[in-house]
Design brief:
- This protein is α/β, with parallel strands linked by helices.
- The protein has one domain: Rossmann fold.
- Helix content is 38%, strand content 23%.
- It contains nine helices and seven strands.
- A seven-stranded mixed beta sheet has the order 4-3-2-1-5-6-7, sandwiched between helices.
- A hairpin with a 2-residue loop joins strand 3 and strand 4.
Length: 206
């Protein structure tokens, strides 16, 4: 058994879901600045996430779903996942983003499962609250250990791919660590660094 865990935003998808959502409210620049600092490790992930989501209060859930169903996938995402599965990998997504995006993309890109966060809504509008599987800096590391134990996968047979500071915790538990067009803070933890926006480059390295 082999395991591959991808980050979603700026890894399988070209951009940050929350920034696209903020655009609907004219707040993209404000939210993007917080996102950038969080991905560089300059802000606590939980605090940055809850702050950014609070700014989305009042956004219609219909607009959220429309945005999440029209996100631009990274070049080579579908082909890379297909090839990894041919090579015997179970492919999973961990995202500090939102299930509206990751669950929709699962059926298009072909990964096996997704773990992400849920935007709270009431009467068709976002309340500005969020909860879920990937709320903290440590969440991805915590979840990958549980999945490795469940599937009986060793760290030697684990591949992780990400771009930001909140991916560091899962990098601790994998021997194949890909920093994909990543922030410097994550490149330091990787043993494979890819600076080209083409996920098929991963297949040449493993």
């Amino acid at each position: 058994m082999k395991l591959c865990v991808f980050d979603f935003d700026s890894t399988l998808m070209d951009g940050e879901t929350i920034d696209f959502l903020a655009r609907e409210l004219g707040l993209e620049e404000k939210v993007a600045k917080i996102t950038d600092k969080a991905m560089k490790g300059e802000l606590d992930f939980f605090e940055s996430l809850t702050t950014r989501v609070s700014l989305l209060e009042g956004l219609e859930i219909d607009k959220v779903d429309k945005v999440c169903q029209n996100l631009p996938f990274m070049l080579g995402a579908k082909e890379t996942i297909k090839e990894l599965k041919k090579r015997g990998f179970t492919v999973i997504v961990f995202s500090g983003g939102f299930r509206n995006a990751t669950s929709y993309a699962k059926n298009i890109l072909g990964y096996d499962a997704d773990f992400s966060n849920i935007l709270h809504q009431r009467e068709g509008l976002l309340t500005g609250l969020v909860g879920g599987d990937m709320m903290f800096d440590f969440s991805k590391g915590d979840m990958i250990v549980r999945i490795q134990n469940l599937l009986g996968v060793t760290r030697e047979n684990t591949l992780v791919v990400g771009d930001g500071a909140n991916d560091r915790s899962m990098f601790l538990h994998a021997d194949m660590r890909v920093a994909f067009c990543a922030k410097d803070i994550l490149k330091k933890e990787a043993n494979i660094v890819i600076n080209t926006k083409d996920l098929t480059e991963i297949l040449k390295e493993i």
